[in-house]
Task: structure prediction
Amino acid sequence: MKWRIYSVLLVGALVGPLVASSSFAETVAERFEKAIAKIAKSCASRKLDPGEVCGEITKLKPADPLATEEGRFAHSIKIPNPLPDDSGYKPGMTPEQYFDHLCKTEAGEFIYKTVENVEGLYMMRPRKRTTDDELEHLYALEDPYGHTTDESYLVQDVYVQPATGRYQFLEMPLSSSVREKERYRRYYRDEHAHPGRKFQTAINGQGVFVPYIVAEGTASDIKSRYGYTWRGISRLHDRELGIAGGELIVLDVKTNEVLAVRRGYMRTGFVRNNLTGVWWMTGPSCPNRGTNLTFKFIQKVLKPLPSEVKEEKDVN
Result:
């Protein structure tokens, strides 16, 4: 089975052979395809125990960036610094060479306008939590670079729970499967939401406990003036060489004016402790991925309304 490299318009191209480096004669994509075939063959060759699951990774499909309303909108946005038609790839480039080229010529943070005293934020395209199979799959994630844990798990604690530079509320669309009259989820501060519950954070580099005050509700409309979304980057040779890119776009929700863009790339395909060689949690990246990668960038653009954080207890 040949996997196809998806594009923004879902136009695939069969992965072709390429000498990826002088030390081995197969591309990341070719190694991945062989691994998938090996896993499928192994599962088919033996009788599974009752309840045993085998080869789930072989059933995963390439991500469809246009499958949702939020995805289609993200890919429709025109940004001030669009990707060039020519990525600069040259036949015979190694993954390292191509990755370094993309980092030097395309990656970076591009801020066109900042806003002060922003009260709340609209997360226009929430990310889902990933599985290990998805992280070991070359094509299952649209934007592995931006798919960090803090963007897919307990985002309310990252964006709203009091600490330096947090927002008063965070909004996001509800899944279409649970929508009724109200279409949005809202996380907001309420000092009476969780009596006695504490949250560990840091203030001025010092570990402290503060009250946990994030409440959750639904709404029929959003209050946020500003928000952000994301989209994957896909070109013919990127995934073939184990490279994935993504763009984060900060914008004015009312006018769709683009305020900032972060474009990043990461590389995988050389991991030795799994069959596919792919592991999107780690690997070379530019700009360098770190804790609260997206939140820290958004803070630079949409500067939160200052608020006092009440320290309760030192944890050091």
